[in-house]
């Protein structure tokens, strides 16, 4: 069937996906290619200091690298040798031009397709793994057909990833489903069977779903939109809870016991982040606009608007609690990644909370166990537009205890497990008084913190002062 696989793109999707394929298909040679020499060098590093962090990823790479898993910058040769080629390149939201702020920028997808057309010989199965708008496979097919030489034949499939950062290896090894979309032709279905054969090495046949190409592409966008919608829904409820004295944790538990709803993605927070949710929802919004479905577009746009509102609302609560001013006050932000168990900061709510605090003149100290200092400054430079001001007001601490020394408040923005086990009595003694604790992820023991002396503010719960003013139950 398939003996050689090439994956274009050695990032968050291509690297882990290719590693697991190599692990589960020892008879298949998997080569991951990227034009970034630095990134490929990191994948090949002797100390396995990989360019991305995922639990258990190092173990998989250690077992396969050099055996049937390779990382290379020789893009053309790897494409020429491969039977099946994954396209796993970045598809960021456009920052200018038609569809700015909503449409996906497909320049890297197009570049990959043109590279395949230039380098390939014979029959190839080309698989779009990146998150793409509906009909992207058609665009890839047109580019390949228009540039085909020497009788090359291409079949283009859609095989979207459904990975959650922080659990990517677990998700790859035990997927809820594998979705493969392809042309409803004899050659197209043969290509689908080839890709099914790869996954059948470890995925039960009942969990491999085959559809037409367009259904597969839309399913990816719709799945992320539904998940983001649940988060925005419970965050909207959290605002009501803070105004009424209800507890969003209790409300989420109550509605999550309904079997029609279920408990997943009902954890109120400072907002969702990551590379997919906002990008995919906005992509869906743009698709609806292009299809002249303004009411549908407005519906999905509200999911993103609510997320932005939640971030701003949480930041405003910090400012209001600190006597309506944070100017020249030191505030510690615990967590900069968009979620625990990853170093990915893309669209992290921490970035926007820091931005709001910097705008108010606060001195912000950031600590995250996995995010490097360079990433913190890079992300804040992008949103603050004044790198000199960022360097003046922001510092990065090596540990939580150093980060909180002399702070007026600490703010939990990422749900790292280690934050639950900190010595909060030690932290309290090192902070300015009154010492404030803001829990934006519902991970701390609020009763214990209050007994120590902290002024505790929790997302989805009324502040103690506001709760006291509410009518008795």
The helicity comes to: 40-55%
In angstroms, what is the radius of gyration? Answer: 24 Å
Largest sheet: 6 strands, parallel
> Roughly what fraction of the amino acids lie in strands?
5-15%
Q: Enumerate how many helices there are, as a single number.
A: 19
End-to-end separation: 68 Å
Q: How many β strands by DSSP?
A: 14
- From the helix content, strand content and strand pairing, which structural class follows? alpha/beta
Sequence stretches where pLDDT stays below 50 over 5 or more residues? none
Mean pLDDT: 95
Give the strand order of the largest sheet, numbering strands 1, 2, ... along the chain. Answer: 3-2-1-4-5-6
Shape, please? globular
What's the gist of this structure?
By secondary structure, the chain is an alpha/beta fold. The protein is built from 19 helices and 14 strands. The strands form three sheets. It has a six-stranded parallel sheet, with helices on both faces. Strands 11-10-9-12-13-14 form a six-stranded parallel sheet, sandwiched between helices. The protein has a two-stranded parallel sheet with strand order 7-8.
């Amino acid at each position: 069937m398939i003996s050689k696989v090439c994956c274009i793109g050695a990032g968050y999707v291509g690297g882990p996906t290719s590693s697991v394929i190599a692990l589960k298909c020892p008879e298949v040679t998997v080569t991951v290619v990227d034009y970034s020499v630095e990134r490929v060098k990191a994948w090949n590093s002797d100390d396995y200091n990989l360019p991305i962090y995922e639990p258990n990823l190092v173990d998989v790479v250690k077992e396969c690298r050099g055996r049937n898993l390779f990382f290379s910058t020789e893009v053309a040769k790897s494409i020429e040798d491969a039977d099946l080629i994954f396209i796993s390149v970045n598809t960021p939201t456009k920052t200018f031009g038609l569809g700015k702020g909503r449409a996906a920028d497909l320049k890297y997808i197009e570049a990959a397709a043109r590279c395949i057309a230039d380098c390939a010989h014979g029959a190839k199965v080309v698989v779009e793994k990146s998150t793409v708008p509906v009909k992207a496979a058609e665009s890839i097919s047109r580019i390949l057909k228009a540039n085909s030489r020497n009788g090359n034949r291409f079949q283009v499939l859609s095989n979207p990833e459904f990975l959650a950062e922080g659990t990517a290896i677990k998700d790859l090894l035990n997927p809820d489903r594998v979705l493969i979309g392809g042309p409803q032709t004899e050659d197209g279905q043969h290509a689908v069977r080839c890709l099914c054969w790869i996954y059948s090495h470890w995925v039960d046949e009942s969990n491999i779903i085959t559809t037409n190409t367009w259904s597969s592409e839309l399913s990816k966008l719709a799945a992320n939109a539904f998940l983001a919608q649940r988060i925005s829904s419970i965050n909207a409820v959290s605002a009501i809870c803070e105004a009424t004295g209800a507890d969003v944790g209790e409300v989420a538990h109550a509605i999550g016991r309904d079997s029609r709803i279920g408990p997943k993605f009902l954890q109120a927070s400072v907002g969702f982040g990551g590379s997919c949710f906002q990008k995919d929802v906005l992509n869906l919004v743009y698709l609806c606009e292009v299809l002249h479905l303004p009411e549908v577009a407005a519906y999905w746009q509200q999911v993103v608007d609510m997320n932005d509102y939640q971030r701003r609302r949480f930041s405003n609560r910090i400012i209001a609690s600190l006597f309506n001013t944070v100017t020249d006050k030191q505030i510690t932000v615990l967590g900069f990644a968009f979620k625990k168990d990853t170093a990915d900061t893309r669209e992290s709510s921490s970035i926007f909370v820091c931005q709001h605090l910097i705008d108010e003149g606060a001195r912000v100290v950031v600590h995250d166990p996995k995010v490097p200092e360079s990433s913190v400054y890079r992300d804040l430079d992008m949103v603050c537009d004044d790198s000199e001001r960022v360097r003046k007001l922001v510092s990065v601490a090596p540990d939580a205890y150093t980060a909180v020394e002399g702070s007026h408040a600490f703010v939990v923005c990422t749900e790292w497990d280690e934050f639950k086990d900190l010595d909060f009595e030690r932290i309290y003694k090192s902070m300015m008084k009154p010492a404030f604790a803001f829990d934006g992820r519902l991970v701390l023991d609020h009763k214990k913190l209050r007994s120590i002396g902290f002024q505790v503010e929790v997302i989805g719960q009324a502040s103690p002062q506001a709760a006291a003013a509410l009518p008795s139950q």
